[in-house]
């Protein structure tokens, strides 16, 4: 995951992730990473149209958004 986050920050690339909320709900989100550390990711969330904080431990899957089809 570290490499994906680093590349996203450098290239300003959107990521698609599957996230489990603290209440147990699963969501698919497209985000643009602003900053991150070992515990949190701060990102623009296109689903909620707002800046959000995501716990890294709750990210079940993450990958770059395919912009070519």
Number of domains: 1
Helix content range:
10-25%
Overall pLDDT confidence: 93
Q: Compute the separation of the termini in Å.
A: 23 Å
Strand order of the largest sheet: 4-3-2-1-5
Largest sheet: 5 strands, antiparallel
Strand content: over 45%
H/E topology pattern: HEEEEE
Class computed from helices, strands and strand pairing: mainly beta
Rounded to an integer in angstroms, the radius of gyration calculated over CA atoms is 11 Å
CATH architecture: Roll
What's the total count of β strands? 5
Query: Total helix count?
Result: 1
Reported by name, the CATH topology is SH3 type barrels
Instruction: Please write the CATH class name.
Output: Mainly Beta
Shape: globular
Low-pLDDT runs of 5+ residues are: none
């Amino acid at each position: 995951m570290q490499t994906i986050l680093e590349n996203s920050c450098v290239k300003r690339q959107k990521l698609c992730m599957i996230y489990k909320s603290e209440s147990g709900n699963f969501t698919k989100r497209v985000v643009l990473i602003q900053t991150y550390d070992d515990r949190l990711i701060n990102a623009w969330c296109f689903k909620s149209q707002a800046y959000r904080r995501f716990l890294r431990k709750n990210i079940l899957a993450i990958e770059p958004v395919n912009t070519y089809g």
